Amino acid sequence: HTADGDVQQIYTPGQLLTPPEVPDRADGSKFLSWDKSLPTVMLDQDLEFTAVYGPHIHRYVSELTKKATCTEDGTLTYTCICGDTYTETVDTATGDSDPSRCTFVCTNCGDRYDYALNYKVEERTGWGSRTVYEFALTDDDLNTGMQPDGSIDVRIPLNEFQGTATRVKVQRYVNGRWEAVPAVIEDGFLVITADHFTPYEVQFTFSCNETGAHTWDQGRETKAATCTEEGEMIYTCETCEGTKTEPISKKDHTPGEWFIDQTSTCKQTGSKHQECSVCHNTIATETIEKNAGNHADYGTRIENSKAATCKEDGYTGDTYCNGCNNKIASGSTISKDTIAHTRGSVVRENEQAATTDHGGSYDEVVRCTVCGKVLSSTHKTTDKLPSQPQPNPNACKYCGEVHGGAFGWLIKFFHSILALFGLRK
């Protein structure tokens, strides 16, 4: 199915399938493709395809229907193959404003000047290009029905200076406004992709080495900055398209977690550091104050301890840290009631001597050698003493004998002298 009607072709299965040629529409819309892919050979079934066309694009031919003079405006008439037309006025201020003349503008100095150069219109094909039309800008027969489309290039030969331009910008005046036209400098030619003839304005840009300082654009980031590396920004000169590269300052670190490097104790301070959550480098350090409650592994000692006895309470002692020497725990009382007595030897107490009239008695007592408490006591008795004979009143009081005879008195006297000197009781 095509714009010109349906076409039927007969194939046998397996036969090479060659679709019919499809012309463009009468309004200039080009045939683009079929609505689905065609197989290489015919299948064992009927196949049906529909031609697909591109949208209609106006391609105007301009014709100077009235030339401008110094007293009257001229008229340009634009006509498309579809029949659409419009007109424009040629300003009297330009004098002979021939639409076939190109105006060149230098973006460095601002000078504007016209060129009457030869145009060559070429059509690109798969095997190169072929010349389809040649004309001069000053040729009055410029608009003699020539209808170039998007595949036609207008090639304008450039002089030696123009050929050194680093960039070219081409605009055309259409429907009362200027619009950009694809153009490049190629092998000494200004190549303009044209779809209709109209006044063109060409702007050449030359190297800033000839004109002075660069005009840099806003720049393009080619390497993002991080907290460890600088980035890169490339700036392009808006005049000559030269470039320069400048660094982008490193980004600030992103504060992350804090890590303990040295635990603080009762004896010494600790330390910690903070890392960047992106690059994990240390970005801050701090000292941790002493921790009075962390006695770590310094060891402990007991002071103020006192052993309990059966007489006095004792004390377990206070616990001190060997690192900071501070008391970390108080002791407790050891009750004296929990301590056993220490038994002493058996001694006699409360002894009563025996006489001839009655017997004696005593207590065998065991006391604690610490507190003196009686741990045991046994009462015992003794027999009466036997009766003693009465002494002789005539007996010597010094020796207990009776001294009789004529010298009895002399013996008593002698015994008294001995007693006087302690030699006899």
Based on the model shown, name its key terms.
single chain, 425 residues, five-stranded mixed β-sheet, 2 helices, 29 strands, 4% helix
What would you say this structure looks like, in words?
With 425 residues, this protein is mainly beta. 4% of the residues lie in helices and 40% in strands. It has helices at residues 208-211, 408-420; strands at residues 31-34, 51-53, 60-66, 74-80, 85-90, 102-106, 112-115, 118-125, 128-136, 152-157, 167-174, 177-181, 183-186, 189-193, 200-205, 220-223, 231-236, 243-248, 255-262, 270-276, 282-288, 300-303, 314-315, 318-321, 327-329, 333-334, 343-352, 360-368, 374-382. Strands 7-6-15-11-12 form a five-stranded mixed sheet, with no helix packed on it. A hairpin with a 4-residue loop joins strand 4 and strand 5. The longest helix is centred in the C-terminal third of the chain and has 13 residues, at 408-420. It is rod-shaped. The model is unreliable at 92-102, 113-126 and 128-151 (pLDDT under 50).
